[in-house]
Specification:
Blueprint (H helix, E strand, L loop, with lengths): L6 H13 L8 E14 L9 E3 L3 E19 L11 E11 L2 E13 L2 E12 L1 E2 L2 E2 L1 E5 L4 E4 L7 E13 L10 E15 L8 E3 L2 E4 L2 E13 L5 E13 L18 E12 L3 E15 L5 E2 L2 E2 L7 E18 L1
Parallel strand pairs: 2-21
Antiparallel strand pairs: 1-3, 1-21, 3-4, 4-5, 5-6, 6-11, 7-8, 9-10, 9-13, 11-12, 12-15, 13-14, 15-16, 16-17, 17-18, 18-21, 19-20
Length: 327
């Protein structure tokens, strides 16, 4: 199962929430994000078409990570309500977990209140901790992912995207009218140094990745409340996949390389004072389903890459908690 740190989605949520607030006087902003997630075990269910995989074990692991985020904001001229908060924003992130470390640089441009253009460049390396693989490549002969040497091999990713955001309070004034919506599309290119195109690899326990472009779509619908602590409740959705199954080597044709992964996540956000926030999130995912159970190949266990994808399989992925402190 994938155990990726859910930084991108919540940074987007935080960015939207910040836009709805008064702009800070200082151009500098620094925050620390602490993530924890618990994963129950949901074994695969052989079949055809869409189906649901129930929880079959108490645990499939935990996730822990800390991210430092810095942003420098440059206000741009604007006098009407649609342009008064125009800005350029440059920033950096440094994320560390028990199995990975990953610095990033970011930039965004907001020409109008409801639209933001953004880009991000990331690099990272990893190692194995308690069975969680940070950086690994797939060995077709053994059917297993084998660890790579940290700092010799690097994960890298570049993204370019746009975000549309809207708050109903802008056209329906009132403290209880903050129905917020956000949708973003990102074109991403990821890769792992030393890997040939089409060969699968793993980054941060996120398996079956290959070099090349993929898309990431994020949507959020929330209700922001003028309460002392409970500030927002809603649901977010993520959609991602490679553009073509030809991005995988031909031997993995049956694996369905351009399969669409979907995540649906109800969430609540609590705020304690002006500098501290706490998020609770339940995460449901649509992953690849297969038409048969795992068998044996040459006396070893068959890997998922050697199986026939047959529809999507929904399961409960994790319970996640994020604590944010703004300095």
């Amino acid at each position: 199962m994938k155990r990726t740190i859910f930084l991108a989605a919540f940074v987007a949520l935080l960015s939207f929430f910040a836009i709805a607030q008064e702009q800070p006087k200082s151009p500098h902003a620094f925050s620390v994000l602490t993530d924890f997630a618990y994963y129950p075990y949901c074994g695969p269910v052989a079949g055809n078409g869409e189906r649901f995989a129930p929880i079959t074990g108490p645990s499939d692991g935990v996730l822990f990570g800390v991210t430092g985020v810095y942003n420098y904001t440059i206000p741009l001229p604007g006098s009407n309500p649609l342009t008064k908060d125009n800005c350029l924003k440059f920033g950096g992130e440094f994320q560390i977990s028990p199995a990975t470390l990953m610095p990033s640089v970011t930039a965004s441009y907001s020409p109008i209140a409801f639209l933001v253009f953004n880009t991000k460049l990331t690099a990272g390396t990893g190692w194995e901790v308690l069975g969680s693989q940070g950086l690994a490549s797939y060995n077709a002969a053994t059917g297993k992912y084998e660890n790579l040497t940290p700092f010799k091999h690097w994960f890298y990713e570049f993204s370019l995207g746009a975000t549309f955001q809207f708050d109903a309070e802008a056209v329906w004034p009132g403290d209880w009218h903050h129905i917020v919506f956000m949708a973003s599309y990102e074109f991403r290119v990821n890769g792992l140094s030393g890997m040939a195109n089409g060969d699968p690899w793993c980054w941060a326990a996120d398996y079956h990745r290959v070099n090349g472009p993929y898309y990431f779509v994020y949507m959020l619908l929330g209700y922001q409340m003028p309460l002392k602590n409970l500030k927002m409740a809603g649901v977010q959705a993520e959609f991602k996949g490679y553009y073509s199954d030809a991005q995988f080597a031909s031997q993995y044709k049956a694996f369905d390389g351009d399969f669409l992964n979907v995540n649906l996540s109800p969430f609540v956000m609590f705020e304690f004072g002006k500098n501290d926030s706490l998020f609770f999130l339940l995460y449901f995912e649509r992953r690849r389903g297969f038409d048969s159970e795992q068998g044996k190949i040459n006396g070893r266990d068959q890997s998922f890459l050697e199986m026939n994808c047959s529809g999507g399989e929904w399961y409960f992925k994790r319970i996640a908690i994020r604590y944010v402190h703004n300095f």
